[in-house]
Amino acid sequence: MIYSDFKKKLLSDLERDRDLLIAQESFKQPETLFEVTDNDDKLYMRILQMFNTIILKNVELLVLKLCKEKNVENSFGLRQDIYMKIDGEMKITEFKTSPVSFNSERMRYYVNRQKETCAKMVFVFLLRDSVVARDSIRKFENRIKSFEKNAEIEIILFEEFIEKLFGYDEKMKFLQSMKDFKAEVHQVIGYRITELCSSANRVKLKKSLLTELKEFDYKTVKEEKNTVLKGAKNYVELSDTDFLHIYERFQTNELYKLLLGDMDFAKSFLTSEWLYKKYFTLSELDNTFIVAGYLKSVEQMLWDIVLILGKGRTIQNTLISDENLNLLNKTLGSLEHFFEDRANLDLFRDVFGNNKGFVVKYLKSQIDLWRINYRNGYFHKRKLNERSTVENIRKETVYLYMIILGSIDLTSENIRSLMG
């Protein structure tokens, strides 16, 4: 039971922290100009380093549980060194993944530390017993002697350590439990390491969201917002008739499917949905990167719409054209002003008639409120620790998608372009 619990927690920790690291990097990494390694290469290395840290942490917890269960003596030193009673002596015990991870500086640090403490030290390497592993250990021992001939540092494999402390039978239990570990790791996180989720999981996520976005209670969100904001300065209310025009267009043309497409705004949305559905219930996790995708996706969607519908128009006095892409102001405030500009009123559907200007004002006010409440303040950790805050951001972002897509006059060709 102790080994099955160990594997379950280890796999869960690996998958969770891997997903969160990928999400974090996807929202903050600029692209390099002159470099051989790309961001995926660097992310891959960070993930491997993170895996080693998680594995070592879980191995220490496993050993401490075994010590408690088997009444094996252990203690912690001043530097939180773990002392284990091995071969009748208390020794500082260091769990390490491989001798390869030691450079000269690190080696010298441990040799000096052993001399300072005068306590015997054991390095326990998490390697499978093999000729190659034994050769690696032999070379490591020679390196230690080259630094300090009399250093009292012992090198053993993890399975030897288990046998020394807990007996041969326990070693065999451990080896049996770990026989299929590599296959289990690949089953959980065996897809391309820098992807957030596997293709199969992505298909499942999109399938569940297709129904969820279609059946989402957009009207209730509208009414809740009206109740909270009514009477506020510059408050703009959307009539039930105009809301119905927007909602019906969104449903009839299945515009919610755009959020499940291949454009960057859809990928940002799906990233946050994956994190929200899988990890949001874990209260100890930082919700920043769940929220980041929702916030980023709205800006990306508006920008993609501007690029499709705005060619030949201007944004902040700059002509929208392929040649000017790097000169254009892509901030959310700039995008708001673009849609609010009366020169761009024709981008909205004629079904609103004389109310078109009010619909545009409502859209602008909703983006503006959303930006002030969430986009400009989402790094306030205190707020993001509140479950209701994250749920509101998600709910109001989905509502905003519907208002944007249902009010702008998108042709069939435009919709195909926004699917990616």
Task: Supply the number of helical segments.
Answer: 17
Which H/E pattern describes the elements? Answer: HHEEEHEHEHHHHHHHHEEHHHHH
| Proportion of residues in extended strands | 5-15%
- Helix/strand/pairing class, anyone? alpha/beta
Mean pLDDT: 84
Question: How does the overall form come out from the CA principal axes?
Answer: elongated
Helix content: 55-70%
- Find the count of extended strands (DSSP E, 2+ residues): 7
- For the report, how would you describe the main beta sheet? 5 strands, mixed
Side-by-side strand order of the widest sheet: 1-2-3-4-5
In words, what does this structure look like?
This protein has 420 residues and is α/β, with parallel strands linked by helices. Helix content is 61%, strand content 7%. The chain is built from 17 helices and 7 strands. The chain has helices at 2-26, 39-70, 104-117, 131-147, 158-166, 168-177, 181-189, 199-215, 218-229, 240-252, 264-279, 288-309, 332-340, 356-375, 381-384, 387-407, 412-419, and strands at residues 74-76, 82-86, 89-96, 121-125, 153-157, 314-315, 318-319. It has a 5-stranded mixed β-sheet with strand order 1-2-3-4-5, sandwiched between helices. A two-stranded antiparallel ribbon has the order 6-7. α12 (288-309) packs parallel to α16 (387-407). The longest helix has 32 residues, at 39-70. The protein is elongated.
Outline the secondary-structure elements.
Elements: H1 2-26, H2 39-70, E1 74-76, E2 82-86, E3 89-96, H3 104-117, E4 121-125, H4 131-147, E5 153-157, H5 158-166, H6 168-177, H7 181-189, H8 199-215, H9 218-229, H10 240-252, H11 264-279, H12 288-309, E6 314-315, E7 318-319, H13 332-340, H14 356-375, H15 381-384, H16 387-407, H17 412-419
Parallel strand pairs: 3-4, 4-5
Antiparallel strand pairs: 1-2, 2-3, 6-7
